[in-house]
Design goal:
heterodimer; A: about 80 residues; mainly alpha; globular; B: about 240 residues; alpha+beta; Beta-Lactamase; 2 domains; five-stranded antiparallel β-sheet; 8 helices; elongated
Chain lengths: ~80, ~240
């Protein structure tokens, strides 16, 4: 599974603001708000407090597909 | 409303900006900021307002095509006096464009348009990711004076408030449009999950995993897979 650090690296690589990522994450079913997402990406929230890790990966992988990529971020089993 | 008319009277500055948004849409508001800026200086030939948001510069308002062409030349080269002033938050005054060597593309277009001097003043924004500049182009031998620069800087302090509010409004508008699209995407994904649950007798989480697996297998976005599933059921494919 892609780590939180890997997600943040991917977000920067995709040049997405946290707000842009949050909108995409919300669009695929994410349930946390933008502030919670920002805290999680900054390493300030535990996995148990933030339950949508895979939806962040969904949003990022979709953004990679838009740019010609092919789901580079692996999912977790949770 | 009456757009402020020409005349370099510093006492008119607050008035010049107090009504730029009256009865105007946003682009027109910023065009009026540019006109008001133009009117502050006697030898100003054209003026514009540049906003750099997300690293991309845009002329948000201008007096005319002369200002727009000069701005565009700088955006194309990703450098020039207005970009330098906005990015470094420091006024840039060019007294004689013909002898300006730092920005050759700007010089080329300026000379073509018979613009001989310029004054670029930063618009100070609170948002650390947004920069702005008031660009003033003239045809005065010897360029604008230090007094002109002070007038323009004083005007820019007022103008920055208007520009910041306009940018904030657009940001919120953009957010609302993107949120509406995200809600639509979310809705169609939920519909697809419901279809997968009904056809496979699985849980919502299992349905989403199926959606995700198909997205990976076909290298298509989740939303596109969801739309295809819904369309299949509706018989629209």
């Amino acid at each position: 599974m892609a780590t939180v650090a890997a997600l943040e690296t991917a977000r920067e690589e995709l040049r997405l603001s946290v707000q842009q990522l949050w909108i995409a994450y919300f669009g695929v079913g994410g349930n946390h708000n933008a502030e919670q997402l920002a805290t999680y990406l900054a390493g300030g929230a535990s996995d148990s407090a933030f339950t949508d890790h895979n939806h962040i990966i969904d949003a990022l992988n979709d953004a990679f597909v838009d740019r010609g990529g092919d789901h580079p971020l692996p999912y977790g089993t949770g | 409303m009456n757009v402020p008319q020409a005349g370099p009277d510093p006492n008119r500055r607050p008035y010049a900006l107090s009504r730029v948004t009256d009865d105007a849409n946003l682009v027109e508001s910023l065009r009026r900021v540019a006109i008001a800026g133009h009117d502050q200086l006697e030898h100003c030939r054209a003026a514009s307002v540049t906003v750099i948001a997300g690293g991309r510069p845009t002329t948000m308002g201008s007096t005319d095509e002369v200002a727009e062409r000069l701005d565009d030349a700088q955006y194309a080269a990703d450098d020039g006096p207005c970009l330098a002033a906005a990015r470094h938050e420091k006024s840039v005054r060019i007294d004689t464009v013909a002898s300006e060597s730092r920005w050759p593309e700007f010089r080329r277009v300026a000379l073509e348009l018979e613009v001989s001097c310029s004054l670029s003043v930063p618009l100070m924004m609170e948002d650390p990711d947004t920069f702005g500049g008031l660009n003033i182009y003239g045809d005065l031998d010897g360029g604008f004076s230090r007094h002109d620069e002070e007038l323009a800087e004083a005007f820019a302090a007022h103008a920055a408030i208007v520009v910041a509010n306009v940018v904030a409004y657009w940001t919120v508008l953009d957010l609302s449009v993107n949120l509406a699209a995200a809600m639509e995407h979310r809705g169609v994904i939920e519909q697809a999950k419901g279809i997968l649950m009904a056809t496979n007798g699985c849980s919502p989480d299992e349905a989403f995993v199926r959606l995700r697996q198909r997205s990976q297998a076909e290298n298509r976005k989740l939303r596109d897979i969801a739309v295809a599933i819904v369309d299949d059921v509706q018989g629209t494919n």
